[in-house]
Automatic annotation (TrEMBL):
This is Cytochrome P450. Its cofactor is heme. The chain crosses the membrane at residues 6-23, 43-63. Keywords: Heme, Iron, Membrane, Metal-binding, Monooxygenase, Oxidoreductase, Transmembrane, Transmembrane helix. It comes from the Eukaryota. PROSITE patterns: CYTOCHROME_P450. The lineage of its organism: Eukaryota, Fungi, Dikarya, Ascomycota, Pezizomycotina. Heme binds at C497. InterPro entries: Cyt_P450 (IPR001128), Cyt_P450_CS (IPR017972), Cyt_P450_E_grp-I (IPR002401), Cyt_P450_sf (IPR036396), Cytochrome_P450_monoxygenase (IPR050121). Belongs to the cytochrome P450 family. The keyword Membrane applies. Gene3D superfamilies: Cytochrome P450 (1.10.630.10).
Length: 565
């Protein structure tokens, strides 16, 4: 048989194989009630993104629209591309039939997303996310089942009201240091605002997590470059190199012939273990001698006992420590991973949008000035934070438009039924459900015709109160009815983000501190008008892309002039 015949037979065989699988999956999907899309390749995988990603813009031009849209859907980061294209959201969800074993359900509808998120046991976190989160050991963010319930019960209280005063005051301190650096630069002009905010977010985690406060520096990475990596430096490298560490074994990354940046990540991986083990031993020694835990995440993890390990209690023995060393390391890592980019980028997007649309600076400055007039101690967490209603509305509007975690994935191993707008839908067994946290915030019928515009006042300011310890801040009243369930940047249900209040406190402290004294303006280029400068900033913000979280592609082009008010 010549080569051509071999190839032709292989192609026919493959075609038949794919057709049969598509047919079988189509039969599974056709009575579900969802809109269907058929696609001849498995989508949404890292492999698809790597192979199909570079041809995306070509595919969007040459393929028929519905095929091109499904292709687009399979390449990582579709949410933000959709937003830039201002595309209509599809309700409630659509099911993609491919030759793969699992069906792919893409949910952009709040009602279905909430229904899935509420049923944690039936829709568990997917395997890939678990692998990423458990890179350094079993952790809250990467566990499922009873293991998750136990970790959640013990860990969520560690991020409650007890730490908020420190988050508030440390964020204020860091912001003062950052602003004094910016305003000492020529004309108060800097392209380092995004990096500066990253330093703040990292340093807050350093204080709250490990009790290691650090001075603000223009670039958190530069400042920590020493001969030998310290703990926080290893942490920075492993958090930034997260995907590489999942794809390549760390021993490979640290080989001498690897590029320096990869070597550093590989090296940091091993040193992170050593440092975290050392720190834990120290913490345990200090706990034994003082008897009282410090107000840090590490100390809480090291000292917490599991009172439900009843065998210990009944036998009158000392309570069993709740976490193994591996679990403590795993949780220290995910605590930083989950709280760093998310909060830093939310602050960066908010400030960029305030600079691009200065009318919203006027709006929050009015609120801030009022607080300064009325509150006797304008630095007090207790007195100031609950009054920052407009500033919180800015945060919510930023999260609605620049949702850091664009989607999360849940697996449905056994057939389930969900409802939306009074209609039932069947989710077949073995379906991967991709819940677009970004998409639910972008429905015209919920948010109105200006859904793609930055308008913080849509969050009716009066209702924006933080309530109770770590409870979901009441979602501010919306002009559009029923919008509460269409705002899920922190997810919802039992697995909703336990760091939400910490992120809000940090964000509000930073914004309040900055705009109490300064305004942000575009640093104009030669012959550029103010209008052009404002549009340039808006364009820099629009040039964004989800990496692990949503990020600006050109953060250093965001040149701002900080002006004393
Ligand atoms: C604006 C900032 C933040 C956003 C938008 C955000 C968003 C999210 C989202 C979407 C999830 C996934 C929930 C799910 O799978 O259903 C999550 C989980 C988590 N977040 Fe956040 N987060 C933020 C800040 C923080 C902070 C500051 C911390 C703590 C330092 C934190 C700690 C966690 C943890 C530990 C989990 C895992 C919870 C679990 O699996 O039970 N987050 N976050």
């Amino acid at each position: 048989m010549d080569l051509f015949k071999i190839f032709a037979s292989a192609a026919v065989f493959y075609f038949l194989y794919v057709s049969l699988r598509l047919y079988r999956n189509y039969m599974r999907a056709k009575t579900t009630g969802f809109k269907l899309r058929i696609f001849p390749f498995e989508i949404g995988t890292p492999l698809f993104t790597v192979i199909a990603g570079p041809f995306l813009s070509l595919a969007l031009r040459v393929f028929p629209q519905s095929f091109a849209r499904t292709y687009d859907l399979g390449v990582y980061g579709v949410e933000y591309r959709d937003r830039v294209a201002k595309r209509e959201r599809e309700t409630p969800a659509y099911l993609v039939v491919t030759p793969a074993n699992a069906l792919e359900l893409f949910v952009e509808d709040g009602e279905i997303a909430n229904a899935i998120l509420a049923r944690r046991r039936e829709f568990e976190q997917d395997n890939v996310s678990r692998k990423i989160m458990n890179n350094f050991g079993d952790s809250l963010a990467g566990s499922v089942g009873e293991g998750w319930s136990r970790q959640r019960r013990l860990i969520a209280p560690m991020l409650n009201e007890r730490i908020m005063e420190t988050v508030w005051s440390e964020s204020q301190q860091q912001t003062h240091e950052m602003m004094s650096h910016f305003t000492n630069l020529e004309n108060g002009t800097t392209n380092g605002t995004v990096t500066g905010l990253r330093t703040i977010a990292f340093n807050i985690l350093s204080t709250i997590g490990y009790g290691m406060p650090a001075k603000w520096t223009a670039d958190v990475k530069q400042a920590r470059k020493g001969e030998k990596m310290d703990f926080m430096e290893t942490l920075l490298h492993v958090v930034d190199g997260l995907i590489l560490l999942v794809v390549f074994p760390p021993w490979l990354l640290r080989q001498f012939w690897m590029p320096k940046s990869l070597r550093q990540i590989g090296e940091a991986y091993y040193q992170f273990y050593e440092h975290s083990s050392d720190m834990l031993q120290k913490e345990r020694r200090s706990l034994r001698s003082s008897g009282t835990p410090r107000n840090t995440f590490l100390s809480s993890l090291a000292s917490v006992n599991d009172h439900e390990e009843d065998a210990y209690e009944k036998e009158g023995r000392v309570n069993k420590p709740a976490f193994t060393e591996e679990q403590i390391t795993g949780n220290l890592y995910t605590f930083t991973l989950a709280g760093y980019d998310t909060t830093a980028n939310t602050m960066a997007y908010a400030i960029a949008m305030l600079a691009a649309y200065p009318q919203w600076q006027d709006w929050i400055i009015e609120e801030i000035d009022q607080i300064h007039k009325e509150v006797s101690n304008p630095n007090s967490y207790q007195n100031v934070l609950p009054r920052l209603e407009r500033c919180l509305a800015v945060m919510f509007e930023t999260l609605r438009m620049f949702t850091p975690v664009a989607h999360i994935v849940r697996e449905c191993p056994v057939e389930k039924v969900v409802t939306s707008r009074g209609k039932s839908y069947r989710i077949p067994a073995n379906t991967r459900c991709t819940l677009s946290l970004d998409g639910v915030g972008a429905h015209r019928d919920v948010w109105g015709d200006d859904v793609f515009e930055f308008r913080p006042s849509r969050w009716g300011a009066k209702a924006t109160k933080l309530t109770g310890a770590n409870s979901i801040a009441q979602v501010p009243k919306l002009e559009a009815a029923g919008a509460k369930e269409h705002f899920l940047p922190w997810s919802s249900g039992p697995r909703a983000c336990p760091g939400m209040k910490m992120a809000q406190t940090e964000f509000l402290s930073v914004i309040y501190t900055i705009f109490s004294e300064f305004r942000a303006e575009p640093a104009l280029e030669a012959e550029e008008s103010l209008e052009q400068g404002l549009s340039r900033i808006a364009a820099i913000v629009a040039d964004s892309q989800p990496k692990l979280t949503l990020q600006m592609n050109r953060p250093n082009d965001l040149k701002l002039k900080w002006v004393k008010r």
